[in-house]
């Protein structure tokens, strides 16, 4: 076997900015969010606090922020930028804004620059076997040309990061972790590969990722001359005007869409071609603020909010992304034990009965009893209502009426099972 699997303690891994975990801390059990205004890797630096102010945090300029190869393109479009996991990325665009960008993706098509996401190449004899011993999901479930959602855990079951694995072959895989956790993922995998034939290469700045998401995404890509119509969570190699790239049927919005993995040096040419091809279909550049409202409507977890060193896959309802039949993966003993006894809290959805807008860190009450905490909360542009994800006492089940403490007042909500909006990722 190519190297022993490295054990990871919850406090042993440190992200690029030096903070353990690299983003907002796991929800406090004392009723206040950890005061990290930088947010999660895919969430704006502005966050909401228990007083109910939208974006009650403060935009803090992180030192030496990295920029996307498309930064100048975003500036020309009037983008407003914010720190995301050590990168300066578009939050929203002048003349549109979060609501318009969100709506464009739900009803037509939008394009995101998500080049801040990590890219890690794992290659060499035994690459699949190594990753299968480290990551939770079972790579035996997919073949070449397919992608898989999975997690990297600590030995006590906490989550170092959640990521997508693209299996090019048995000896060649691409991982896409969250921006702030890329260095931690690389560190763990290199430790596990030490002394073997597997190479773990950090390609964070070598590749760009562009996400075309929405009901008309096929038309945009087809007009641009790119392949469309392959199965959800699969990918194909392609060429666009001499540029080699990968077209993936993946995304983080709940809509039918594609993500293009492109050499960073060619990102501008591909971006411009996509915008030209998308003009007849109303293609809207969209920032990461809209990406966050879109993923919240789907109930998709975000590391630092619904996942983290103190929030396990079992608590987050991600047991489907765990290969329970595998003999080992990092954290398998702790997760098997938690699954057997049942988690102390579960991730649920909350839908407003009134006008309350929930924010991370707000307390949730049932019959006057504190039963948990909001992990992500926003106004849903699709439902025109407040929605949230929350870690709650497992006794609090869907259809339960609860209250969220918003600006020192109690707002009525009902517990629901996400998603809040029907996904169309698999539609043709």
From TrEMBL:
Which SUPFAM superfamilies does this UniProt record tie to the protein? Aminomethyltransferase beta-barrel domain (SSF101790), Folate-binding domain (SSF103025)
Q: Can you name a GO cellular component term?
A: cytosol
Question: EC number(s) in its UniProt entry?
Answer: 2.1.2.10
Q: Which residues bind substrate?
A: 259
User: What sequence ranges are listed for the domain GCVT N-terminal?
Assistant: 70-326
Record domain Aminomethyltransferase C-terminal: where: 345-421
For this protein, what reaction is catalysed?
N(6)-[(R)-S(8)-aminomethyldihydrolipoyl]-L-lysyl-[protein] + (6S)-5,6,7,8-tetrahydrofolate = N(6)-[(R)-dihydrolipoyl]-L-lysyl-[protein] + (6R)-5,10-methylene-5,6,7,8-tetrahydrofolate + NH4(+)
The main enzyme category here is transferase
Biased amino acid composition, Low complexity:
36-45
* Renumbered residue ranges of the record's region Disordered: 1-56
Q: Where is the composition biased (Polar residues)?
A: 1-10
- Please provide the record's keywords in A-Z order: Aminotransferase, Methyltransferase, Transferase
One Gene Ontology biological process: glycine decarboxylation via glycine cleavage system
Q: Which GO terms describe its molecular function?
A: aminomethyltransferase activity; methyltransferase activity; transaminase activity
Q: How does it assemble?
A: The glycine cleavage system is composed of four proteins: P, T, L and H.
Similarity section: Belongs to the GcvT family.
Query: Which PANTHER family does its entry note?
Result: AMINOMETHYLTRANSFERASE, AMINOMETHYLTRANSFERASE, MITOCHONDRIAL
Q: What does this protein do?
A: The glycine cleavage system catalyzes the degradation of glycine.
Q: What is the protein's name according to its record?
A: Aminomethyltransferase
Organism lineage reads as: Bacteria, Bacillati, Actinomycetota, Actinomycetes, Propionibacteriales
**Gene name, Swiss-Prot/TrEMBL:** gcvT
